[in-house]
Design brief:
The protein is globular. It is built from twelve helices and no strands. Residues 274-291 have low confidence and may be disordered. α1 (13-28) packs across α8 (168-187), α2 (36-56) crosses α3 (66-76) and α8 (168-187) packs across α9. With 295 residues, the protein is mainly alpha-helical. It has helices at residues 13-28, 36-56, 66-76, 79-90, 101-118, 146-153, 156-159, 168-187, 197-207, 210-220, 239-255, 280-286.
Length: 295
């Protein structure tokens, strides 16, 4: 029986996860990215302009402008659909990488150069105040509802916004728990396993590197481990609630430890109209929630 500590991953998930949180923080400050018209425009630019460009330059590890980067991010978090859609639209799985803010700025300059050469009459940076391009309402070939996914994922940052989600010690423990999470899935392939938010951050970070994620999951599970964030009903008796209870029991019986972890639990809905980041004093109260129920 394979030890989860022996799993080989294609990237350093602990090192990369803080870049993931920083990106989510940036998105959270651009409220236009919650506007459906802006998302439709971004989706058009992503499907018809960005994916073909990125597929044309597979060795460049390009960074996309923020509106495109956000819908790309949401698409990547449905890895099976992402693989299918990429193959249908551009004939290859377009890879994606997370970067530090400094590295992202550098790669954006390279992307802008390639974009301007390929699409001289299309703006690289989209002004959310511009009128919507009529072409944005054209039917999409994408099989995943990215606009609906963007609404669900827009609240994820609040769940991982406290400082410890960038702390290396916490993330090392999260990565170890992620390995156990994969092992449980390997041993219980039909079980809908629900992660806590420490595990979910590591899992999302892994999925945001689609070529490596596909390779790693095929080595561990024999197939791509799909991620379904559309199950959001947290009420008692729901699929999410029951799966959470089942995951807790299985985890305790298998590893002899509690699955629930202080600082990694569901914090409730984000406070509307307030900054997601909380002060140190209020952060202590937030971990007293008892539900994982991550998406």
């Amino acid at each position: 029986m394979q030890d989860p500590r022996s799993y080989v991953f294609s990237l350093d998930l602990v090192k990369t996860s803080p870049d993931h949180v920083s990106f989510l923080q940036e998105v959270s400050t651009h409220h236009a990215l919650q506007n459906v018209a802006v998302l439709r425009q971004a989706l058009y630019r992503y499907e018809h302009l960005w994916l073909p460009l990125a597929a044309k330059w597979p060795h460049e590890a390009l960074a996309a402008p923020l509106d495109i980067e956000w819908v790309w991010h949401c698409h990547l978090l449905s890895p099976v659909a992402y693989q299918r859609d990429c193959m249908s639209i551009v004939g290859t799985i377009v890879d994606h990488h997370l970067f530090s803010q400094k590295e992202r700025a550098k790669r954006l300059n390279r992307s802008r150069t390639l974009w301007t050469s390929e699409y001289p009459h299309q703006p690289f940076d989209q002004d959310p105040g511009c009128p919507e391009d009529p072409r944005a309402s054209a039917p999409s070939k994408l099989t995943y509802d990215i606009i609906a996914a963007a609404e669900r994922q827009s609240v994820f940052f609040y769940q991982v916004s406290l400082p410890h989600f960038r702390d290396r010690k916490f993330l090392n423990a999260a990565e170890a728990r992620y390995r156990k999470f994969l092992w449980l899935k390997q041993q219980n392939p039909r079980l809908f396993i629900v992660p806590c938010y420490d595990i979910d951050l590591i899992w999302h970070t892994h999925q945001l590197h689609p070529v490596g994620y596909k390779k790693d999951m095929e080595a561990v599970l024999g197939h791509t481990f799909n991620h379904d964030d559309s199950v959001t009903d947290r009420s008692e008796g729901s699929k999410l609630y029951n799966s959470d209870m089942e995951t807790r029991e299985l985890w305790r019986n298998t590893f002899g430890e509690n699955f629930a972890l202080y600082g990694a639990m569901y914090r409730g809905d984000p406070p509307a109209g307030k900054l997601y980041a909380m002060t140190e004093g209020t952060g202590v109260c937030a971990v007293n929630q008892v539900s994982c129920l991550s998406v």
